[in-house]
Amino acid sequence: MIGVTILGATGSIGTSTLDVLSRNADKFNIVALTANSNIEKLFEQCKQFQPMYAVVVNAEAADKLKARLESVLPDIQVLSGVENLDYVASLNEADYVVAAIVGAAGLSSSLAAAKAGKRILLANKETLVMSGQLFMDEVNKNKATLLPVDSEHNAIYQCLQSFNGSQGLSDEVRKIYLTASGGPFRKLDLKLLDSVTPDQACAHPNWSMGRKISVDSATMMNKGLELIEACWLFSADVDDVQITIHPQSIIHSMVEFIDGSVMAQLGQPDMRTPIAYALAWPERIESGVQSLDLFSMSSLEFEKPDHARFPCIKLAENAMRQGGIMPVVLNAANEVAVQAFLDNEIAFMAISSVVENVLAQTTYHEVNDIKTAVNADSDARMLASDIIKSMATRLAGNKNHA
Ligand code: NAD
Ligand code: MG
Fold first, then answer.
1. 213 CB under 6 A from ligand 1?
2. What pTM did the predictor assign?
């Protein structure tokens, strides 16, 4: 039996992972499940999967879960605090660690899994955005196995595997096509973009995901973060990766070789496919995903992204080209701006303005250790909050004038 820890078990990726695992219960057992504060869901998951450990970051919520589990499943150890995320990511019993916490909060536990030499199923793209070189170094040094769960990167990985079994790009690769749906506002009148609501932004046409990544898909910052992720995963340059809008989300990304061959991975837009691939690699297991009905598909379309509509793509490209702390700052400013948008504090198009402003006010320096990345992250968050506050003050001032 293979022991699995799921970091971020109560989220969209966590839930899909448990669904795949429940279909393959003869192969895997659950070592630990973690959540930020959603103990209702974690309690249900504990009853169904009976892990050795349940970690709840919030201490009060952890106490409540403990009290509820005591009478039904007293053997489950309930832990709290962020340090225990790292602990369950490094346990001997955990062969595989699914890194599915959202945002910068996932960095430390992903790194802990790398240091412990685990098979890491990486959904948390922020790990690579924030600490690409350091994380890849830890993976290599400790002989961890890194398998991308993000559907595009999983697709690229599959295309490269079919070619030479290696993860990195070789001279025989001409281009990576990183596909994107274009989100819910691909065709919306540009003038209306400023008045879209959080619920509209979260209503993704093809994928069902957490709210943060759904907003990132609507601004296409998600694709910017994924570009950075692809560069680190496959040792690629920004220019090796062509972001390609493919509204149907049937092709999940492609790799072109120097002989003109283009390999693509196709499938339903359902995260259980890349999750199952990463769990079973180099084999295959059942995922519960339906067959692709080729005859019901009308067409597969491809477009270049419109940079006026999606300014976040260029911001991410530039941050990656600059390197150092810039991708960390991009990610942190974006997290704060997305949260402010979700809380109805700023308009949709202000997300990219906040990020652009924070980047413009940041002085480049290198990232040689995690502390530097963490400090750059918190400085960028403070700056982003200040910019958002001044936007709100200006807005209130304008209203008073009117
Ligand atoms: P989600 O919001 O649905 O779930 C997030 C999980 O992280 C929850 O279990 C939550 O309890 C936990 N969490 C949140 N804040 C935390 C904190 N401060 N400390 C510890 N735990 C915390 O998110 P999701 O959509 O499942 O995305 C998870 C990650 O996977 C993200 O990095 C996202 O970019 C990536 N990803 C998601 C999808 C998708 O289809 N949902 C696809 C590709 C990549
Ligand atoms: Mg993706």
1. yes
2. 0.96
